[in-house]
Write a structure and sequence with these properties.
The chain has 294 residues and is α/β, with parallel strands linked by helices. It has helices at residues 10-19, 34-40, 42-51, 105-117, 135-143, 146-150, 161-170, 210-221, 257-272; strands spanning 2-4, 27-33, 54-56, 60-61, 66-73, 125-129, 153-158, 176-180, 194-200, 222-233, 235-238, 241-244, 275-281, 284-291. It contains nine helices and 14 strands. Strand 9, helix 8 and strand 10 form a beta-alpha-beta unit.
Length: 294
C-alpha cells in the first residue's frame, strides 16, 4: 500500500492511520517530502509506527526532494503475553526467550544508570528475582572488571526450569548461583539477606501479591542499608518488537494507573525507611533506591 503524503500535516497523517485497516505483515509506504521529515524528525514517525503496532523499516529515496517511509504491521498474535500460564511461558522454547531487552537502548541506558546510582561496585551480595537467563547479571558483568565481578555473590531465582538450566551454563562461575523456585515461597530457600535486590518485570505478575511480596522482600531479604532496583514494564513485546505503553485490563489503549500505583507504593514505603528513591526510564520504568547516608 503506497500513499502520497507530500505536504500533509501531522493531523492528516495521524487520522489516515487511525482510519486505515492493515493486515499483519502488510507494508505501508508513505511518500514524504524531505523538508517535512527534517521539520518533524524521524522520531515522530517511529512513535507513529509504535502507536499503530507497526515497525519502521529502512526508508528509500523517492526522488530528489522526497523519501518513502515504510511501515510493516506487526502480528498482534505473536506475543508471549498471550502464551499459556505455565512456568515454561518464559522457558527456552518460548517467544519470551527470543527477546533481549538489554539490546534496546532505552532499557540498557536506564538500567546502567540505576546500577551506578546504587554504587554496584560496592555491593557484595545480589539477588535477582525473575532472573530468566541472566541478562541483568550480564550487564553488571560488563560494567565491572573481571575481579570486581568475581568478588561478588549473585543469586538468581526463576520459576522456569529450562531458563535456569540455560543460565547455569551461561554463567559457570562459582560466584553465580541459579535456583528454580516460586517467588511466592522464597522463605523455603533460606537465602538470607542481600545488599542489592533486583527484579525486572516480575513482581507485577498476576500470581504475585505485589504489596505483600515487596514488603516481605524488604523485611526478610534486604540487608540493612541495602539497595533496590525494580523495573516496571511500560511496554509490550509484540512480534519481537518492544512497543511503548503498558496494557491495562478493560482498555484498548495504553493506561498507566496500575503501574503508577505500584511505583507510588514502593516509593512512599522506602522514603519512610529513609531511602533516596528515583523513578527513571521510558519503556521500562526503574524505581531505584539507596539508603540516605546518616
Amino acid at each position: 500500500m503506497s500513499i502520497n503524503f507530500k505536504e500533509k500535516s501531522s493531523k492528516e497523517i495521524l487520522e489516515w492511520f487511525e482510519a486505515c485497516e492493515v493486515e499483519a505483515g502488510e507494508i505501508v509506504e508513505l511518500e514524504i517530502l524531505e523538508s517535512d521529515i527534517e521539520r518533524i524528525g524521524y522520531k515522530a514517525f517511529v512513535d507513529l509506527a509504535q502507536i499503530f503496532f507497526m515497525k519502521m523499516l529502512t526508508p528509500t529515496q523517492s526522488d530528489a526532494k522526497s523519501l518513502t517511509l515504510r511501515f510493516q504491521k506487526l502480528n498482534l498474535e505473536t506475543s508471549f503475553h498471550k502464551a499459556d500460564k505455565s512456568s515454561e511461558k518464559y522457558g527456552v522454547d518460548s517467544e519470551f526467550f527470543t527477546i533481549d531487552k538489554t539490546s534496546q537502548f532505552s532499557f540498557l541506558y536506564h538500567y546502567r544508570q540505576a546500577l551506578k546510582f546504587i554504587n554496584i561496585e560496592k555491593k557484595k551480595r545480589v539477588l535477582n528475582l525473575g532472573v530468566n537467563r541472566g541478562d541483568e547479571f550480564k550487564v553488571i558483568q560488563e560494567l565491572l572488571s573481571e575481579d570486581e565481578f568475581r568478588a561478588k555473590e549473585f543469586v538468581g531465582i526463576d520459576y522456569s526450569a529450562s531458563a535456569i538450566e540455560y543460565a547455569k551454563k551461561d554463567f559457570p562461575s562459582s560466584n553465580v548461583e541459579f535456583r528454580c523456585h516460586d517467588i511466592n515461597a522464597l522463605d523455603e530457600l533460606g537465602l538470607g539477606e542481600f545488599d542489592l535486590i533486583i527484579s525486572i518485570g516480575t513482581l507485577q505478575s498476576t500470581n504475585i501479591n505485589f504489596n505483600t511480596t515487596f514488603m516481605s522482600l524488604y523485611q526478610n531479604h534486604l540487608e540493612r542499608g541495602g539497595a533496590i532496583i525494580l523495573g516496571f514494564p511500560n511496554c509490550r513485546w509484540i512480534d519481537g518488537e518492544m512497543v511503548y505503553g503498558a496494557k491495562a485490563p478493560n482498555y484498548a489503549f495504553s493506561e498507566l494507573s496500575l503501574v503508577l500505583k505500584d511505583i507510588h507504593f514502593c516509593k512512599k514505603y522506602l522514603q519512610q525507611k529513609k531511602y533516596r528513591v528515583t523513578v527513571t526510564g521510558k519503556d521500562y520504568l526503574f524505581l531505584t533506591a539507596r539508603k540516605i547516608a546518616q
